[in-house]
Amino acid sequence: MPIAREMAAKCMEIDYAGLPEEVVDRAKYLLLEHLGVAARGAQIESSTAVHRFLSRNACGASGVPVVGTGLTAEASYAALANGVAAHAPELDDVVKEASLHPGVCVMPAALSAGHLADATGKELIAAITAGY
User: Fold this and answer.
1) H or E stretch including 65?
2) ∠ at Cα 70 (57, 24), nearest 5°?
3) 100: helix, coil or strand?
């Protein structure tokens, strides 16, 4: 089986009930941190440029919320805007050993997908864990 399929299959096996308490706690912490940083980052110029684009091209009343704004957008555009906002102030999470900022990819994708799927909080935490 190709590695991408193997990884996808492993991610699909992740269930909230099987997560250790410390993993759930960390995922909740990272989500809260992401939302706070994205809310602040939504006010930075790189984010406002994306918001202008959304307001002209991709906004809709039934879309996914764009953190720190009154906008909603199609899921992929909302994920883009939320990722830009979370990275703009350069306060997002970092894995020092790899010099990676996984939260700006994982969180916006999980939030948009969760919104589309009407996911529960537990399903969102499991999705975030799978993303990380």
Assistant:
1) strand 59-65
2) 105
3) strand
The reply to whether the predicted model has a pTM over 0.85 is: yes
Question: What is the Cα–Cα distance from 2 to 14, expressed in whole angstroms?
Answer: 19
CB 78 within 8 A of CB 108: yes
**Is the torsion defined by CA of 3, 82, 58, 12 positive or negative?**
positive
Distances (CA, A) of 111 to 48, 99, 104, 115: 20, 23, 11, 6
**Which has the minimum average pLDDT: 18-22, 30-34, 48-52, 90-94?**
90-94
Q: Give the residue carrying structure tokens 């799978």.
A: 130
* Alpha-carbon span 3 to 26, nearest angstrom: 27
Task: Looking at the chain, list the stretches that DSSP marks H as alpha helix, in order from N- to C-terminal side.
Answer: 3-13, 21-41, 45-57, 75-87, 103-117, 121-131
As a whole number of angstroms, the distance between CA 50 and CA 53 comes to: 5
For the record, the structure tokens of 20 come out as 């250790």
